[in-house]
Amino acid sequence: MRKKNTLFLHSVSSPPMMLSVRLLPLLKIIAVLALFTATHIALAKTHELKASTTTVHRSFFDASLTPVLTIESGDKVKLETVSGNPRYFESLGVPKEKIPAELYAAFEGVEGISRGDHTLNGPIAVRGAEPGDTLEIRILSVEVRLPIAGQGFRPERGALPDEFNYQKDRVLWIDLEKQSVEYAPNIHVPVKPFWGVIAVAPPASMGRIPSGPPNFFGGNMDNSDLGAGSTVFLPVQIAGGSLSIGDGHAAQGHGEVCLSAIETSLKGEIQVILHKQQHLKWPRAETPTHYMTMGLHTDLDEAARMATSQMLDFLVERKGMKREDAYMLSSAAMDLTVTQVVDGTKGIHALIPKSIFKK
User: How many CA atoms lie within 13 A of 169 on its CB side?
Assistant: First the structure.
């Protein structure tokens, strides 16, 4: 491999006489970067991480957790996540023979009948990741893998706690062929799967914290725009990053107003890329069509302010705009969307279309 590198660089450093000498350093850099990228892609591995009693943690984040998988930057991971404690489905009258055996295996030893939505695969360590770096998580694919799902609301939770101050749960069945849920007679909800929780570990100083409210390291963002084809950028807080993913949603509206989505088990593939010394204060993301910034706060007004301010940061840093011009562009072309209002820390995400930028 080294011999090939030398030959490649030598061919670039011996250009035709008509080529300007001043271009040679630039061509050398381009050649090295191209070779490095090609080699990096060729060496990237694909790992598998299925939900099991030894590969998940439930409903918390903790920097002291030992990674269950260590990967290199650029590697891909095929994931199978679970949502749905079988005892929860049994309590709602589902016969054991209709509950997938995978759920019994993944929830072995778990007490109680809680649905267990935040059963999180990981942590996944990325070799070389350090505080001050950024992890790029490309969601290459995500789809429903089991037909059974659950949904419910709880007292004193959700957007309308005064009206629905009691508990209700239901089982929903997903038609995997039609990719839809028959929610009621003549009401069919199309499947649009995504993982509600995507997070790196918090700083060690925070200790063990619940996974319910999202934070600056990501977490339970419940952002239905982060499906297949999207990319999430998270600021690394500890060595290795310790990425966790789970909380599978078959479908969810912006807002998630009753408290939960159609919670189910998913499968998919991600690619994780490490960016050295590209520190972010808060998560960012991209969809195939939009750039996205996020505001996370107990007050929706403050969340909107945060999402807007971060979009201005992005436009200044990445598009070379003056901040005052970015402010006006955002008013003309940016959408503020309510992510969710039910996780204590509420979410607003700002979206600006990629199509308006011509380069």
Answer: 15
Q: Give the chain's radius of gyration (CA, Å).
A: 23
Residue type, 230: S
The CA distance from 356 to 359, in Å, is 9
Structure tokens at 336: 């503020």
Mean pLDDT in residue range 9-27: 38
Domain ranges of the chain: 46-281, 290-356
pLDDT (tens digit per residue) in 85-140:
999 999 999 999 999 999 999 999 999 999 999 999 999 999 999 999 999 999 99
Partner residues linked to 337 by β-bridges: 349
CA-closest candidate to residue 245, choices 198, 212, 205, 288: 198
Helices (H) and strands (E) in the chain, counts: 6, 20
For CA atoms 347, 351, 228, 43, give the dihedral sign.
Answer: negative
Give the predicted TM-score (pTM) of the model. Answer: 0.88
Find the helix or strand (DSSP H, E) in which 244 lies. Answer: strand 243-251
d(CA 300, CA 298): 6
Rounded Cα gap, residues 141 and 342, in angstroms: 27
DSSP 98: G
- What would the pLDDT profile of 256-290 be if each residue is shown by its tens digit? 999 999 999 999 999 999 999 998 999 999 999 99
Quick one: tokens of 55? 């590969």
Query: One-letter amino acid identity for 70?
Result: T
How far, in Å, CA of 43 to CA of 165, rounded?
55
DSSP of 55-76, one letter per residue? TEEESEE-TTPPPSEEE-TT-E
Tokens of 200: 């790196």
Assigned fold of 46-281: Jelly Rolls (2.60.120)
Rounded to whole angstroms, the Cα distance separating 291 from 282 reads: 14
What CA–CA distance (Å, rounded) separates 177 from 98? 18
Tell me the CATH number for domain 290-356: 3.10.28.20
